[in-house]
Every structure is written in structure tokens, then in C-alpha cells.
Amino acid sequence: MSELNLASFLTDFAALPDPRLARRRQYPLLEILLLCVSASLSGYEEWDEIVDFGVAKLAWLRQYLPFAAGIPAHDTLNRVMSRLEPRGFEKCLITWVQRSVTLPRGAHICLDGKRLRRSATARQQQTPHAQGGASAVHLLHAWCDEAGLCLGQYQTPDKANEITALPELLALLDVQGCLLTMDAIGCQKSVTQAIAGAGAEYLLALKGNQLALHAAVKAAFAATAGPEAATTAGEKPAHGRVETRTCRVLPAEQLPAALRGPEWVGLQTLVEVVATRTVTATGVTTTETRHYLSSHQACAAAFQGYVRRHWGIENRLHWVLDVVFGEDHSRKRAGHVAANCAIIRKFVLNLLRAQPESKSLNRKRNLCALSDEYRQKCLGF
To answer: InterPro entries from the xrefs (predicted)?
Structure first.
């Protein structure tokens, strides 16, 4: 990953529309964004903390931008970030990532949604929208596990709208030749059409939302003796359990023609993964069988890896955002502030992951708080 520099920061963010009246802009938008990114990089997430960071590091910040009016108040930060249009900010994130990293052909990109649980109050979420209720902010993420980077974010009204949001996100990303994986909500004909239209391949989890197709895939594997299989067994107990996974692959021609019609664009392969899990404390063993559809052609061992690595978006992105950045505990709710602060966290996570030191993300954030030089290095300035 190449470094972010001051010129690219100014270029990528200069096009971001400022929602304020020109005559009332005491604090330039670029200064506010640099302050928020630098503070979050150093472990400060609340508005008061960001102001304190800015006051303490004003001389350091003035190396890069004038900050002629000093540091804005916490109310000003909240007001500006709540009015900033998230669509333009999302495009800035995607533009910066695509400028910073070139994905190899065949890269594995995971797509999954995440809800910012406290971006609306419990009462708002329990009240119908017609009566003044509101949903928590829901985001669709694109994650490349090989690069360890969040490639993009797209806000959707709710989880069901991930399907309609996917073409919009793919239109912003360069996924030519990549393999996209998604859970069962993405197992839709329209999704395969959007992915194929972007020049990519897919691996989609298949569950009861495609009842007839799921039944046909299970029947195809049940009727076929010993297709190619790859087995992965856990050598040591992990999280108090030992798991063995067996993957089998069949060509899509095994399905009835009516079920694999042209609407499922590019469908080539059926995949079955049987996971047998034994809890070490109790000795109880359970078995789960999962099925997938894919336009990709590969061996069972390769599909085994794709299925496992898809969960990197949960373990290395969503879990980190909640535990390291406290995203699920954030009560920022005014206007667009929840979605915009989520974008800043993605910038910061990508910057920290780009540092080669063998340190935890928390240690890197602590170093950014303690050392102007290390913070400057992370920013690439």
C-alpha cells in the first residue's frame, strides 16, 4: 500500500461539498477532516476529546494546514459532520483506497453489512417510521482480506436494501477479475447480474430464501457419490472446540435446467461444506452443512479457503470496529454524523493496517497519541 501524502489528501477531499454557507465558514472543511482523522488515529473518538487533542497538537497540525482560527468547538465539529453528505464522503474513501492499492487479478473481496446499533435510540428503533421512528444506520462494506483493507462503504436504509445497494457500490469499485463472496441475503439473480456486469465472479451462500434451488442443490450432492473433496481438520482446540470441514464441488449442470436458467448469470459450480464441531469441555458433536453457488471454477481446496476467508470481514473488520474503535457504543446520532464517523474509522483502520510493525492496533493508536513522528508516519505526510 502506498503512502497517503498531503497533496493526495488535499486533492481527494477538496471536491467534497461543504454543506455550510460560504460566508459562515470560519473553520475550513479540510481542517476539520484532518483534525478528526488525526484524533481518531490517536485513539480519541468523542468530540470533546478531539477538541482537546487539537488544542494540544495545534502546532503540529499547523505544519500541514493553516488552522488560522484555531480549533473548532465540539458543537461545531458535530454540526459540520452531521450535515456532510455521506455519499460524497464514501466516494472519497473509495477514491483514496483505489489510489493507494492495486488489487491483483483474482483478489477475494468480501461483502457484508453492519448496523451501527446506537446510531438511533432504542425507542426510535421500536417505533414505526410512520409514527416518527428511525432505524439504526446500516452500512454495506467491501473488504479485501488479502490486503487487510476496507475498500469501500455504502449506506443502506436497512439490511434488506443491501441487494439494491450492491450495484451502486460496485459502480464505484474496480473489481474486474476479482471473486466476490456474500452471505445468503446476496443469493439473488439480480446480484449475479450486477457482479457479472462489473467483470467479477461470485461465491454466494445458499439458504432457505431460495427454497427450490436449495433443495435441488442438496439433492444433487446426495445423489452423487464422492465428488472431489477437501478436508481441513483442526489440529488444536480453538475457542474450546475442534472443527473438521469437508468441501465437495459439483458442476452446475447437475441442476435441472429450469433452476439454473440464464437469470443466474455465469453459474458454473455448486459447493457443499460439511462442518463437524466437537466442544472439548462436553464432548458434544454437531454437524452443519452449508451450500454455495459460484461462477468460479476451482478445486474443493480453493473453495474451502474462500469460504473460511469470507469471515475475515467479521473478524478483522466488524469485530475490530466494535472492540478497538467502540463503534457499537457510539451515540453520535445527529443527521449524517454516524455514517460519516464510520467512514473516518475506515480511513484510520486502513492507515494503521498499512504499518508493518508487529503491534496491535491499540498499541499503534497509543503510539500515535504519544509520538508526533509516528502519527505523521501513519498519515504518510
So the answer is: ISAs1_transpos (IPR047647), Transposase_11 (IPR002559), Transposase_11-like (IPR051698), YbfD_N (IPR032806)
Is there a domain that residue 52 lies in?
no
Provide the domain count of the chain: 1
Cell numbers at 253, concatenated = 449442470
**Of 137, 187, 148, 194, nearest to 170 (Cα)?**
194
Say how many residues make up the chain: 381
User: What pTM was computed for the model?
Assistant: 0.90
Cα 291 off chain centre by: 23
| CA dist., res. 29 & res. 202, Å (int) | 39
Phi-psi region of 126 (alpha: psi -120 to 50; beta: other; left: phi over 0): alpha
Neighbours of 8 (CB within 10 A): 16
Residue 227: what pLDDT? 67
Asked whether residue 1 carries a pLDDT value surpassing 50, the answer given is no
Full domain range(s) for residue 226: 209-301
pLDDT in tens, 115-140: 999 999 999 999 998 898 988 999 99
* 290 within some domain: yes
Q: Does residue 220 belong to any structural domain of this protein?
A: yes
Contact call for residues 181 and 108 (beta carbons, < 8 A): yes
C-alpha radius of gyration, the chain, whole number = 23
| Cβ-contact 224, 201 below 8 angstroms | no
Confidence of residue 8 (pLDDT cuts 50, 70, 90): confident
Type of residue found at 34: L
Q: Is residue 275 part of a domain?
A: yes
Cβ-based neighbour number of residue 192 at 10 Å: 22
First to last CA, the chain: 15
Q: What is the pLDDT of residues 32-51, one digit of tens each?
A: 999 999 999 999 999 999 99
